[in-house]
TrEMBL record:
Coiled-coil regions listed: none
Pathway this chain belongs to: Plant hormone biosynthesis; gibberellin biosynthesis; Hormone biosynthesis
Gene3D superfamilies for the chain: B-lactam Antibiotic, Isopenicillin N Synthase, Chain
Keywords: Iron, Metal-binding, Oxidoreductase
Family as reported in the entry's similarity comment: Belongs to the iron/ascorbate-dependent oxidoreductase family. GA20OX subfamily.
GO BP: any one term: gibberellin biosynthetic process
GO molecular function, one term: metal ion binding
Organism: Vigna angularis var. angularis
Entry keyword annotation includes Iron: yes
Pfam families, alphabetized: 2OG-FeII_Oxy (PF03171), DIOX_N (PF14226)
Protein's UniProt name: Fe2OG dioxygenase domain-containing protein
Domain Fe2OG dioxygenase: 216-316
């Protein structure tokens, strides 16, 4: 079903932070000629019918059963995928289907509000949470054809970070919204911690190694909303990037759009209703001393229907030092990156956005220069 998209995206802000309106007089999805700010160069235009990426469906129930044979087979599959491109699926994850459905319905409820209402949560310059319509104020070209809402989650059980955020920012009418996403983030945090156990065993370190590191995680939840686009062959919902965070646990609706760059070409990751897509981010790649890969990916749009996704970005506590376990540093694989904290990498990505496969190398050089 085509969901209406009543809001209008706003053009990039000028240096004096005045908001200028893109020349739009109707919702984005109704325009046959999209604004030039959203047109991507020929060498970056989307591939609308790429081949499917073969990624393993990982049975979390089987992994958590601790059956030695099942665990060994699952770890081998995850290791192969993460060394090649960092993407895999998790199935039999135990997440309540009704909770996922509620979360997707609330995406509709938020993004179909009038723009002034959504702008009550407007992301401020220099921040990475809040409502953003195409990252206005940060870029003047190659804008993504989407809107997002991002918010913090803390795994401190004495707080209800998400619920408090929506109540304080949007009022009592958003109590249910905050409650649902508080629960969703708690479930995603638990699932992410289980996945870190799997990743640890796949690397040959202890099951608890990465789980302990992320137990007190301070993560980010993002709701993605991609309106239909009359010229999907020239626009992108999200440009090519690597996630700077540790892990991304993504639930797609049933509209295809995610693409991954592997061996010099783009592949699609088809939606699977009962599965989450997991991918390695830059921070976790550093934790593995470069053994597991953070891979370029992007999102395309279509000319018929809205696409939505729920992305939970696992991030370590701000005081945790990102450094690989000693077992992963060898003569054959010496230490690749300097130690850092997640806020420092976040600062770098805010200054130098549109992260690519060389982000960690560039960050390492920047960090060494900064610490001279």
């Amino acid at each position: 079903m085509l969901i209406p998209h009543p809001s209008m995206l706003v053009a990039p802000q000028s240096n004096d932070i005045e908001v200028q309106q893109v020349n739009l007089d109707a919702p984005l999805q109704n325009h046959s000629n999209i604004p030039s700010e959203f047109v991507w160069p020929d060498d970056e235009k989307p591939c609308l019918q790429p081949p499917a990426l073969k990624i393993p469906p990982i049975d979390m129930k089987a992994f958590l059963s601790r059956d030695p044979e099942a665990v060994a087979n699952i770890c081998a599959e995850v290791s192969e995928a993460c060394k090649k491109h960092g993407f895999f699926l998790v199935v039999n994850h135990g997440v309540d289907k009704k909770l996922i459905e509620k979360a997707h319905k609330l995406i509709d409820a938020f993004f179909c509000m009038e723009l002034p209402e959504k702008q009550r949560l407007q992301r401020k310059l220099g921040e990475h949470c809040g409502f953003a319509n195409s990252f206005i104020g940060r870029f003047s070209s190659k804008l993504p054809w989407k809107e997002t809402l991002s918010f913090h989650y803390s795994n401190d059980k004495s707080t209800r970070t998400v619920e408090d955020y929506f109540l304080s920012s949007m009022g009592e009418d958003f109590r249910e919204f905050g409650s649902v996403f508080q629960e969703y983030c708690e479930v995603m945090s638990n699932l992410s911690l289980e996945i870190t156990e799997l990743l640890g065993m796949s690397l040959g370190v202890s099951r608890e190694c990465f789980r302990d590191f992320f137990e007190d995680n301070e993560s980010v939840m993002r709701l993605n909303y991609y309106p239909s686009c009359q010229k999907p062959e020239v626009a992108l919902g999200t440009g090519p990037h690597c996630d700077p965070t540790s892990l991304t646990v993504l639930h797609q609706d049933q509209v295809e759009g995610l693409q991954v760059f592997v061996d010099g070409r783009w592949y699609s990751v088809a939606p699977k209703e009962d599965a989450f897509v997991v991918n390695i981010g830059d921070t976790f790649m550093a934790l593995t001393n470069g053994i597991f890969k953070s891979c370029l990916h992007r999102a395309i749009v279509n000319n018929q229907i809205v696409r939505k996704s729920l992305a939970f970005f696992l991030c370590p506590h701000k005081d945790k030092v990102v450094t690989p376990p000693k077992e992963l540093i060898t003569n054959e694989n010496p230490k690749k990156y300097p130690d850092f904290t997640w806020p420092t990498l976040l600062e770098f990505t805010q200054l130098h956005y549109r992260s690519d496969v060389e982000t960690l190398d560039a960050f390492s050089r920047w960090l060494l220069e900064k610490n001279k």
